[in-house]
Design goal:
The chain has ten helices and nine strands. The protein is α/β, with parallel strands linked by helices.
Length: about 240
């Protein structure tokens, strides 16, 4: 049986996103295993993502799927992932660059070893993006036949505002990444402004950056509403 797992920080934005993801999974009777971490702790822990995923692979049984907290599941994914026999499944954009926002990890000895090695290598080079470390490791182990790889189609790592430009209209999102990091840049800018400019930033029609954030929220809210999920994002979640 497939289990979706992940983590999110304790701020309002990511907590709402994680709740939307959990609700979307439950719509299709998919097991969900999510952890909340304090934002300050998450920033201090070296190699947090590989450590967390490796730990969950050790603790959970059966086939597991890591999904970034700011995603939504739009269709029943169980038949697809439960049929995968390879050790690991990830998407490579244009068949070249691994994307770690959706990672399927089978309950096989080699998959366990792969996650342990990802954690170990990340701790050795904490300054390198964990996604790059994982791709180097997966490519190396696939070439040496230590693991088997299933390259996921883009439907399962669909980035709401860029995948359409990459793949065209023929690709229908199934797991859609909603990119809460777009809001993070807005938050950093907002926190650096004085009170007057903060007030201006809360008025969407005045600033392009705020209109983009509101546009993202509208996409998230529309996806949630399409599944009957009564959780809505708003500017107030950021300040």
């Amino acid at each position: 049986m497939l289990t979706i797992f992940g983590f999110h920080t304790d701020d309002k934005l990511y907590t709402k996103h994680a709740n939307i993801l959990a609700c979307s999974a439950k719509k299709f009777d998919i097991n969900v295993h999510f952890h909340q971490v304090f934002k300050d702790d998450w920033q201090k822990i070296i190699a947090f993502k590989p450590k967390f995923i490796a730990q969950m692979r050790r603790e959970l049984t059966g086939k597991i799927l890591f999904v970034d907290a700011d995603a939504i599941i739009l269709k029943d994914i169980r038949p697809f992932f439960e049929a995968i026999e390879e050790d690991i499944a990830v998407h490579y954009i244009n068949d070249t660059r691994l994307i770690s926002s959706t990672i399927f990890i089978n309950d096989t000895p080699n998959a366990h070893l792969l996650m342990d090695e990802w954690e170990r290598r990340q701790l050795q080079q904490p300054e390198v993006w964990d996604q790059i470390v994982l791709q180097e490791l997966v490519d190396e182990w696939v070439e040496s036949k230590k693991v088997t790889l299933n390259k996921l189609p883009p439907n399962y790592t669909f980035i709401y505002d860029t995948s359409r430009r990459t793949y065209g209209d023929s690709v229908e999102p199934i797991i859609e990444q909603l990119q809460a990091s777009r809001d993070k840049r807005w938050i950093d800018k907002y926190q650096g402004r004085n009170t007057f400019h903060q007030w201006l930033m809360r008025i969407p029609f005045l600033l392009k950056s705020t209109r983009k954030i509101v546009g993202r929220h509208n996409v998230v809210n529309a996806r949630a509403e399409s599944l009957g999920i009564n959780i809505r994002l708003a500017i107030d979640d950021l300040i």
